[in-house]
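Standup notes
- HV: blocked on the assembly model, inputs below
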Amino acid sequence: MREIEGRSRGWWALFALAAALLLAMLAAWHAMESRGHVITGMTNQVVWGLPHVFAVFLILAASGVLNVASVASAFGKRFYKPLAPLSGWLAIVLLAGGLAVLGLDLGRSDRLVVAMTHYNFKSIFAWNMFLYSGFFAIVGVYLWTMLDRTVGGYATSAGRVAFVWRLVLTTGTGSIFGFLVAREAYASALLAPTFIVLSIAYGMAIYLLVIIGACAGTGRPLGAGVIERIGRLLGWLVLAALYFVAVFHLTNLYLAKQIGVERFLLVDGGVYTWLFWVGQVLLGSVVPLVLLWAPGTRVNRAAVSLAALLVVLGGLAQMYVTIVGAQAWPLDLFPGYEMRSSFFDGVVHPYAPSLPEAALAAGGFALALLGTLLGVKFLRLLPASLADEALDPGDGAR
Amino acid sequence: MNGRRAFLGAAAALGGVAVAPGVFLFEPAQAEGATSKVRWGMLVDTTRCVEGCTACVTACNRENGLSGGTRPTDAQWIRKLELREKATGRTLSLPVMCQHCAEPPCVDVCPTGASFKRADGIVLVDRHLCIGCRYCMMACPYKARSFVHQPLSEQKPDVPRGQGCVESCTLCVQRVDRGERPACVEACKAEGRDALLFGDLKDPQSAISRRMREAGAKQIRADLALDTGVRYQGI
């Protein structure tokens, strides 16, 4: 384990990019604070928009990326052990990025302290605040046990606690939507387990991108076997995610009252239908699967990177369909009736993100990137070598 | 080495901020300011409500200081819904506002307790606790809530509103607390329709209870079992 130099042109370029995006995020936040959410594309019909798409994605990825460490500590796979510290750190910075977006999108983000001192314990949101802060604390301790040899003996226990906590955390994130009885596209108990599977896929994809980028940028060796092994696992996760999504939609299609919204999302919903089939299914799942598993591409660093990037983009498409698509579909107050009103009842609600909310959303990634850059520079997160022979293939790999 | 120490120090400080919410304890529930001996409710007789009449909407806007704008970002506490049954072509016109549920989903999901139900059944938003997360708007089956998207000016002194907060029909709580009826009810009566009846659902002798007992009344989305305080006849 060794810090990186953190002085290369690539490091500084990424640092500058992250800093610029963060500044843009703060400018967008200031504009939304002073002029109101009217400068965003969000309305009284589509109340959660692009910021929530990015925030929920980042929060899911945060809990998912920790799985690399969980596999090492909680399940004792020695192969993943050198990969674990970076996984813990990424979990922290990704969650921070997601929460920053959520916090700065609030209508009254100046009242964050209210959110931290007044709790309604029937609210999944309130529960999540504890789950998030607990996640920071537990993963922080876990990271400590991995980085400090004097407490290294506790790594397995800390890893197990972190593993259980992350499952609960993602259940909580999925339940934000699963408990909304009012919206036809939600109100499914399947959302929580689906979100858990999605999170592991998203997190693994981001981990692959970071490890490949870090090794390329620092000149550290990264074995083709290592990439192939993690890539193969990512393939299984993508397949599992696709399966859960299929079950989710099929169960919804079985319920007569859900057919309208399912038809909207899957058949004639315009941008949402495109994002689902082309973004999420084709580019976000099928193409990565081929790239990750085909004999010609699965050992190719560029192909695996592309696959991971596509999983990330497909994940964002999925969140867009899940969060915005569900709101675009009008609430059915009177089944069997056509409705019209001054408040846009009975019509599909349009939504087009504006520049400020896009800047706010992208800022979440920027914060995570900045945290990653600083982490690998100041902490011993990255192994000196990830060459095939440097890693213990143990536990019957291959 | 120094760089790492400084970094770890900064990381610990940030971590403290992130963990802080878990350390605070929650405060006691909303103090009871109204009596639970009554439950305020409203009965809408849709057979008396006509298409094109928006007297209730205008009165609500005037009473509560709403702009009356109908852009997607404008607040609308009450709206007229025009319905047409697909199978028969039957048409209906009726107002929809906060239904003041006995089991309000907005109150359940609100993280800070800003959304709350008064002892007398009126569902309100505490302007000082609302952080503007809009989770209540996601949860409301009636699309009854609005988010204030812009700075406000010339507000009514007894109807506090605020940019970045969520709001909805209060049953004109400021009038009810003075012993008056909601503005929409008065306006509908003045218009000669008298389609809106306000009263105490807990008092079996109140006009609203008697009418509901005799003529029957339905809830919108009764399948959700939210026990709404606003009921409808003729739907």
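- HV (later): unblocked. Residues 67 and 200 of chain A are 7 Å apart (CA to CA). Strands of chain A lie at 337-341.
- Next: hand off to the docking folks.
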